Amino acid sequence: MTILTETSSSTGRGTVPSGTMRAAVTTPEHTLAVQDVSIPTPGPGQALVRLITSGVCHTDLHAVRGDWPVAPKADLIPGHEGYGEVVALGEGVTSLEIGQKVGNAWLWSACGECEHCRTGWETLCESQHNGGYSVDGSFGEYMLVDERFAARIPDGVDPVEVAPILCAGVTVYKGLKMTGVKPGEWVVISGIGGLGHIAVQYARSMGMRVVAVDIDESKLALARKHGAEVTVNAATDDPGEAVQQAIGGAHGVLVTAVHPKAFGQALAVTRRGATIVFNGLPPGDFPADIFDIVLRAITIRGSIVGTRQDMAEALDFFARGEIHPTVAVEPLDDINDIFERMERGQIDGRIVMKY
Ligand code: NAD
Ligand code: ZN
Ligand code: ZN
Q1: Does residue 57 have its Cβ closer than 6 Å to ligand 1?
Q2: Which of 212, 251, 288, 302 sits at a 20 to 30 Å CA gap from 176?
Q3: pTM confidence score
């Protein structure tokens, strides 16, 4: 139970509820503990958001388990697919209103001044903050956003289905653009989890023909439901042989899988001149034959989330009814169980938590 107190004498600036909120916080055992924590106060340029839903991304699992070379902040509240309503504005905020629907994102903020920011590559800013990693995120009842970077959510969208667009959607939309695959050409999407099943839909909407690769039959069925024409089970078949035989190699590949093996296999599914984009971030490396890459002029590139413009475009595809994430709703209290199922590859589509 929270009590509302006025924090600003001027009307229209909203209120910060007094009291505490429920949130999932990292523990030294690399799990999450759902507990009562203080409701944050928005600083200059920030807004307080009452969360309605939040998707659970595999990146949150990497963050909690400590998988990556750069550690997250201590006592982290993860989550970067949070959707909610602005309830209080910090000093100087002019572009957000009380009641407006916004999302946080992995790209929580960037400096706006560096070479990367100035050239439209704010996702590469070295001074960026990341939602649910270097700043607290959306696995709680409230979160802060930076007014410059909060995703503006179009009116009338489904509050559950929109959550996965905020990371999975924008990430694969940007990744698919980076493949350079043209309408009518083939893209292989490797890994049909939260990201991959949405990638199949963006690819189709962008006019691409889709081959889906995963190690689980139910994921491949999901890919077919969302429009994949060819599916390959990498647990039973060799993806290179299967894709070369079926379509003569793909023009582009998007790897969202969480096992390094899929990254090496990406080379074998390409045709000459193809571009491979890596979205997945499992710890590890993969074998790559130099002669093969040079002689066949293969491009391999990484792609990290998307800019604010990519986000607006990804949300626009969604708002026009082109993208329908497969979602299941679960409570915040189930978060450790959700993570265990995610680790075992037992989630179809995305889990979205509702507050
Ligand atoms: P997820 O757990 O929902 O899905 C992972 C999928 O990979 C599952 O369907 C699983 O069956 C499949 N998989 C596992 N091993 C495979 C193999 N050998 N070959 C093919 N498929 C295999 O995870 P998610 O939320 O979709 O995230 C996927 C990865 O993308 C994570 O590493 C996450 O951190 C990363 N990610 C990156 C960005 C970015 O901007 N680059 C953004 C979001 C997530
Ligand atoms: Zn910058
Ligand atoms: Zn994510």
Answers
A1: yes
A2: 288
A3: 0.97
